[in-house]
């Protein structure tokens, strides 16, 4: 029988931790944008009608460029694990 490690027995805990990390990263993104707006009020990314929304969009783009390779690496490693397990386990 397969025995789970104690930390893997509680998927609710992992969900809450993932939720907390998502909230922290979002707050960090907005806080860093607010800091840049305060430091550089005459930025070319600040417009009359949209405010400094361009800075938030620029920060969001950087975040997605970092997150996409990490997601691809995670999916590839899960696929490799599945294929390895399928090849090694008897039918």
Q: State the secondary-structure class.
A: mainly alpha
The number of strands is 0
Give the overall pLDDT as a whole number: 75
N/C terminus separation:
16 Å
Protein architecture, described:
- Keywords: Membrane, Transmembrane, Transmembrane helix.
- 71% of the residues lie in helices and 0% in strands.
- The chain is mainly α and 91 residues long.
- It has one domain (12-88).
- The protein is elongated, with a radius of gyration of 21 Å.
Helices, strands, pairings?
Blueprint: H1 11-39, H2 53-88
Produce a short descriptive summary.
Keywords: Membrane, Transmembrane, Transmembrane helix. This protein is mostly helical and about 90 residues long.
């Amino acid at each position: 029988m397969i025995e789970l490690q104690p930390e893997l027995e509680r998927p609710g805990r992992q969900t809450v931790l993932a939720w907390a990390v998502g909230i922290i990263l979002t707050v960090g993104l907005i806080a860093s944008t607010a800091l840049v707006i305060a430091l550089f009020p005459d930025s070319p990314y600040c417009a009359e009608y949209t405010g400094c929304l361009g800075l938030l969009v620029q920060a969001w783009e950087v975040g997605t460029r970092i997150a996409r390779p990490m997601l691809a690496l995670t999916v590839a490693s899960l696929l490799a694990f599945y294929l390895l397990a399928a090849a090694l386990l008897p039918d």
